[in-house]
Amino acid sequence: MPNRIDLLKMRKAYLEGYTRRKESGNGKVTLRATAKLVKDTFLQGRIGRFHFDCDEPPSRGGDDKAPSPLEYFLIGAAF
After folding, report:
1. 29: CATH
2. Which of 1, 29, 55, 65 is spaced 20 to 30 A from 37 at the CA atom?
């Protein structure tokens, strides 16, 4: 079964990013995330072009409209 990841494409993207950071002189990457409290424990957040909703279960004062912050953390660790 072949890899599902295009390793050549990933390597090219990595090297392009590495070259840009090296040429910029500081070698740093900055990510910015924002979150807005909408109601009770319901938040809407954004990082880059992606938007996320976050909530807590009723036992913690939320309405369970979206994954909790802990659930987002855990799925992030899984990736």
Report:
1. 3.30.300.20
2. 29
- The 3-state DSSP class for residue 50 equals strand
Amino acid found at 59: S
Secondary structure letter of residue 15 according to DSSP: H
- How confident is the prediction for the chain on average, in pLDDT? 89
26: which 2 tokens? Answer: 């500081």
Residue 59 lies in a domain: yes
pLDDT greater at residue 66 or residue 23: 66
Strands 50-54 and 42-47: antiparallel
Q: Give the CA-trace dihedral at 30, 78, 16, 12, to 10 degrees.
A: -170
CB 64 within 8 A of CB 57: yes
